[in-house]
Design brief:
The complex is a heterodimer of chains A (about 375) and B (about 675). In chain A, a hairpin with a 2-residue loop joins strand 17 (about 320-325) and strand 18. In chain A, the strands form five sheets. Chain A has a six-stranded antiparallel β-barrel. Chain A is elongated and about 75 Å long. Chain A contains seven helices and 20 strands. Helix content of chain A is about 20%, strand content about 30%. Chain A has about 375 residues and is α+β, with helices and mostly antiparallel strands. Chain A folds into three domains: about 1-40, no CATH class; about 45-275, Thrombin, subunit H, CATH 2.40.10.120; about 280-365, Pdz3 Domain. Chain B folds into five domains: about 10-45, no CATH class; about 70-260, Thrombin, subunit H; about 275-350, Pdz3 Domain (Roll); about 365-450, Pdz3 Domain (Roll); about 485-680, Alpha/Beta hydrolase fold, catalytic domain (Rossmann fold), CATH 3.40.50. Chain B contains 14 helices and 34 strands. In chain B, helix 10 (about 525-540) crosses helix 14 (about 670-680). Chains A and B meet through helix 1, helix 2, strand 8 and strand 17 of A and helix 1, helix 2, helix 3, strand 1 and strand 3 of B.
Chain lengths: ~375, ~675
């Protein structure tokens, strides 16, 4: 049996090694030995009663604005202090600054919006009460951090989706796993923007009306993330179930609770506005593109200006530009957009497709401090 | 030691509770050494929590085993919207299936027809890819990149895939670093007509093209959107993340691979049979039609054959057959066991991707119609040419009205039916030699040979056609005429009301055409229709009948009413079964065409005034020679749509003719339209 365990240990440690080398078979027999122990016809209960009982009192039901505009008027929230600080999603439900908060045991309070960080979709609501069960958020500066969970990690989600829970009923619990950790592209203009950082994509239908502000925990009840809004993945045209990792929210939560918070929203807006004025155009590098006629015109090079950086780098007419740095550009418009965002100085890496080969080249970015004289087409 | 032991999977899958103490003890030891997360290790049985954590690790291990074979696909260029849904333009997923650069993925990922496809390997290398072949039966696409020594996954043997077993759906679209994981179980096998494994793991554009794997990290399937109801590439997309997801069994993917690697596009296999009934779980597969020039017809399948076995599998109902056929490609063989008049018979049918539309080869002449005499002693039929269409191949070839047709290419013909069968074997462009008996200048019969170059559909309807002279009506009392002229009656079987017009000739035995007029909703238009068509009815021996809708408009039950009415009229009047047509205007054209499409054995054609057909007409073949006449009111809002419809029908080699009229389509047309309709009905039994 010792023999068995040692190999299992080796296997677990070396999974990275054999995937890198593509040698699957060596580990397979041992993996099989785990599989037959675990393969069951049904999901095992992902969490025990004890854990659920411990987490439930830390969740609250929030009722606020929304009903008039045919929008749902309820959120979920979770307690992050014994004095009634509640973290929740920043959305239209909080529009009137006061909300009704109902605890797991049915106690009812008026809650005030203490502060919000729209950039993180985060708001903190305060109710007047003491000795409440809560999650410890801790101070990130003093080394209190939340671990990141890997894809495949089992999770439990708590939320008042569709306001199924009323009065002293606990919120709904669903189980799943972390599907991925990734940034969410959202369709610009068509949907509310969502959290811009890396999120947990959940392999369960967690993001429903009212679920925002709920939580995702590990099976042993450790807080992993706050359930986000209902958004569509712009690239794939599908609804996304995601949660914002608590580690991204920790600092803002602490700052709002301690009254040291200054929203980053305005500065963000400034940055965005600044970003919209393109500093560079492809011609700054000597690249003339084929006319951008339809939304998905691929980024084909029409001609290269003589003596330009592009000529020196060996770019040629009919090259299809595919990447600017590590960003895929799917159209001429996207290419010009990426070029426009470049900062003065340094180099930019371009990957082009010529015939059936990908060619990487580096072009120096000229020093420039004023916007181009001519506006972009 | 585990290597030598059979894998006692079933025992343990039966119930997690069946885990023996010994095994759990050894397992907890394994955990103690490997899993530092488990803080307070109990030396005895593992807790539920420990088992769960260990299980999580297996999920991750299985994923990491296959991860090096899961690639990211990016596309550039292409359409924005396909089939009414926004085309996916994000990254998608593929699986390496050949170490020398073969990647298989879902055809869904290329519905936007991108101009450039890029592969990013898990190690970060990027390659341009070529789309080598597609599989429109299983909705797969095969890509090739110029790389070698790539890691390929282990393929799960089909027998190892069990309903209820864990299944992980993996994708690369969300993050290039780690595959996304959705966990579920195998919900069913052989779904979507035998093609797919069903899983409740979440399947969506996030992982279309990615693998479905088992806990050993073996590939059980390739994730694709599928729908049992539809065959388009995006069908099934609407079920994304619903708990109903599909994967093509990995073994089937590998089997299709060599043909696709050779650049062959794989398509669903067709045999060319349609069946009576459409209840997949009820009706037995009784052959209703065998498509002309189809593999089934070449294999000798006949109408009323019953299929009782396919590829060695017993077949009782249509669904059974669809299940066997549903997984076959064009080029595959289908072994059918059939019962013909209770005699068992075996045939092998090579399936094809397409059955070409039958293009009826036409010469452009009419035969004299024999009277519909009930007299068995009637003289033997003679095939006398009644009329030759102006500017037709028959006229160019030198056929004359009055000629008697004796033989085609040396094969003698005795009846109109046998003449048709002989001509049906010819294709447009063929030049059959007609042997004719013709009166010479001295009024002596002599044999003449002419060659006629046959033409395909749509064959032009002649602008002029002499009418058949009316026989002298029978004397009163000789054969009691039922109703002459305009009449209003009720059908005995159901009491439903209809009006009609029988020309005086309908009291005789000359065969008459029949127009069944289905009025638009709320307006019987009786007077206008009769006024427009009465002269033609008299001149060209056509009966007119107008059943009346009950209440607001036509209902599905009226299909049977019309059928009963036609049968009734056939018993009362000399109606030519080859010239019964249904006519509708604006909102009744759909019902009119529906009737004709459904029962081509009863109705030979449809006249559609200012309205579309009910879907696509059935494939034309010698057993269903549908003729369509579309009247397009130039001022109608539907005119453009109808013109498009005509164009598409022409491509399908339909016998379609078009009449343009002025107005917006609310009035019933008359004038020259009526004359053209008269000629059209008169020439429907053309050769």
């Amino acid at each position: 049996m010792k023999h068995h365990a040692l190999h299992l240990q080796k296997l677990l440690q070396s999974s990275a090694w054999f995937s890198r080398n593509g040698i699957f078979r060596s580990g397979l027999a041992w993996l099989m030995s785990i599989c037959f122990l675990l393969g069951g016809p049904q999901l095992l209960p992902a969490a025990d009663d004890e854990m659920i009982a411990e987490v439930q009192p830390k969740l609250v039901k929030i009722f606020g604005a929304g009903g008039l505009r045919n929008l749902y008027s309820y959120n979920t929230g979770f307690l992050i202090s014994s004095e009634g600080h509640i973290a929740t999603i920043w959305n239209h439900v909080l529009d009137q600054n006061t909300v009704t908060v109902i605890l797991h045991d049915g106690r009812r309070y008026e809650g005030k919006v203490l502060g919000a960080e729209p950039g993180l979709d985060l708001a903190i609501v305060k109710i007047e009460e003491t000795q409440l069960e809560h999650f410890e958020i801790g101070d990130p500066s003093s080394g209190s951090t939340f671990p990141l969970a890997a894809p495949g990690t089992r999770i439990v989600a708590f939320s008042n989706m569709f306001k199924v829970a009323t009065g002293d009923e606990p919120v709904s619990v669903i189980q799943g796993v972390i599907a991925a950790r990734t940034k969410l592209p959202t369709r610009r203009g068509a949907y509310e923007s969502s959290f811009p950082g890396e999120v947990y994509v959940i392999d369960a239908i967690t993001n429903n009306p009212g679920a925002g502000g709920g939580i995702v925990t590990t099976v042993d009840g450790r807080l992993l993330g706050m359930i986000g809004k209902e958004v569509k993945n712009a690239d794939l045209n599908t609804w996304v179930n995601y949660a914002i990792p608590i580690s991204h929210l920790q600092q803002a939560m602490t700052e709002i609770m301690t009254g040291n918070f200054r929203s980053s929203k305005n500065t963000d807006d400034e940055k965005k506005t600044a970003g919209r004025v393109p500093l560079f155009h492809s011609t700054d590098f000597g690249i003339v593109m084929l006319p951008n006629v339809v939304p998905r015109t691929p980024a084909y090079v029409d001609r290269i200006l003589p003596g330009s950086a592009a000529e020196v780098a060996g770019l040629k007419p009919n090259d299809l530009i595919l990447f600017v740095g590590d960003e895929l550009v799917q159209s001429c418009g996207e290419f010009l957009d990426q070029i426009g965002r470049l900062e003065s100085g340094g180099k930019v890496k371009l990957i082009v497709r010529r015939e059936n080969v990908l060619i990487t080249s580096e072009l120096p970015i000229p020093r420039k401090s004023r916007p181009p004289a001519k506006p972009l087409r | 030691m585990n290597l030598l032991l059979p894998w006692p999977l079933r025992v343990f899958r039966a119930s997690i509770a069946a885990l023996g103490l010994v095994i759990t003890a050894s397992f907890s030891m394994a955990l103690a050494q490997t899993e530092t997360v488990v803080a307070e290790q109990n030396a005895a049985a593992p807790t539920q929590k420990e088992l769960e954590l260990a299980e999580e690790r297996v999920f991750r291990l299985a994923t990491s085993l296959i991860a090096p074979s899961i690639v990211r696909i990016e596309t550039v260029g292409g359409l924005d919207e396909v089939d009414g849904i926004l085309a996916v333009n994000g990254s998608t997923t593929g699986v390496i299936v050949g170490s020398d650069g073969w990647i298989v993925t879902s055809a869904f990922n290329f519905i936007s027809k991108p101009t450039s496809i890029l592969i990013t390997l898990p190690d970060g290398r990027k390659f341009p890819a070529k789309l080598t072949a597609t599989d429109t039966l299983r909705m797969l696409a095969l890509l090739k990149i110029d790389a070698s020594e790539l890691p390929t996954p282990i393929i799960a043997p089909p027998e190892s895939v069990e309903v209820g077993a864990w299944a992980l759906a993996l994708g690369r679209s969300l993050s290039p670093d780690q595959p996304s994981v959705s966990i579920g179980v195998i919900s069913a096998k052989e779904r979507v007509w035998g093609k797919a494994i069903q899983t409740d793991a979440k399947v969506s554009p996030v992982n279309y093209g990615g693998p479905l794997i088992d806990l050993e990290g073996r590939m059980t399937g390739l994730l694709v959107p599928l729908s049992p109801q539809s065959q388009t590439v995006s069908a099934g997309f609407e079920w994304y993340d619903s708990g109903i997801g599909f994967a093509i069994p990995a073994a089937d993917v590998m089997q299709a691979l060599p043909r696709m690697q050779a650049g062959e596009n794989l398509r669903p296999g067709l045999m060319g049979i349609s069946f009576a009934g459409n209840d997949l779980s009820g009706d037995a597969p009784v052959v209703e039609r065998v498509r002309f020039q189809s593999p089934a017809s070449a294999a000798g399948i006949l109408v009323n054959d019953v299929i009782v076995g396919a590829d060695g599998i017993p077949i009782a109902r249509l669904g059974n057959l669809k299940h066997v056929l549903g997984r076959k490609y064009a080029g595959d063989q289908l072994r059918l066991k059939i019962l013909r008049k209770n005699e068992p018979l075996e045939v092998t049918i090579p399936l094809v991707a397409e059955i070409p539309p039958w293009d009826e080869a036409t010469a452009g002449f009419l035969l004299k119609r024999n009277s519909l005499s009930t007299n068995a002693e009637s003289e033997p039929e003679k095939l006398i040419v009644r009329a030759v269409f102006p500017n037709s191949p028959a006229m160019s070839g030198g056929l004359l009205a009055g000629d008697e047709i004796l033989a085609i290419d040396g094969e003698s013909v005795a009846t109109a039916d046998s003449l048709r069968k002989l001509l049906d074997r010819r294709k447009p462009g063929d030049q059959p030699r007609f042997t004719l008996r013709r009166q010479n200048q001295n009024n002596q019969p002599e044999e003449v040979q002419v060659s006629i170059t046959l033409k395909g559909q749509p064959f032009p309807v002649p602008g002029e056609l002499p009418a058949v002279a009316n026989e002298k009506p029978l004397a009163e009392g000789e054969n009691v005429p039922k109703a002459k002229g305009r009449f209003l009656e009720k059908l005995a079987v159901n009491g439903r009301e209809y009006w009609g017009y029988a020309p005086a000739s309908a009291t005789g035995q000359q065969p008459h055409g029949l127009i069944v007029w289905l009025h638009p909703s709320g307006n019987s238009m009786e007077a206008a229709v009769l006024k427009s068509l009465k002269v033609e009815c008299d001149r060209r021996q056509i009966m007119l009948v107008g059943p009346k809708a009950e209440g607001k408009g036509w209902t599905p039950e009226d299909v049977d009413f019309v059928k009963a009415l036609v049968e009734h009229l056939q018993s009362e009047y000399p109606i030519d079964p080859g010239r019964i047509v249904v006519m509708g205007q604006t909102d009744s054209t759909k019902l009119a065409s529906f009737l004709v499409f459904k029962d081509p054995a009863i109705y030979r054609g449809a006249i559609l005034v200012g309205g579309p057909t009910a879907g696509q007409p059935p494939e034309r073949d010698p057993a269903a020679r549908l003729h369509l006449n579309l009247t397009i009111p130039e001022g109608s809002r539907s005119a453009d749509g109808l013109k498009k419809l005509v164009e598409s029908l022409k491509k399908q080699k339909s016998a379609i003719s078009t009449i343009f009229v002025s107005g917006d389509g609310s009035e019933f047309p008359d004038g020259t339209w009526s004359e053209q309709i008269g000629i059209w009905i008169d020439q429907i039994d053309r050769f």
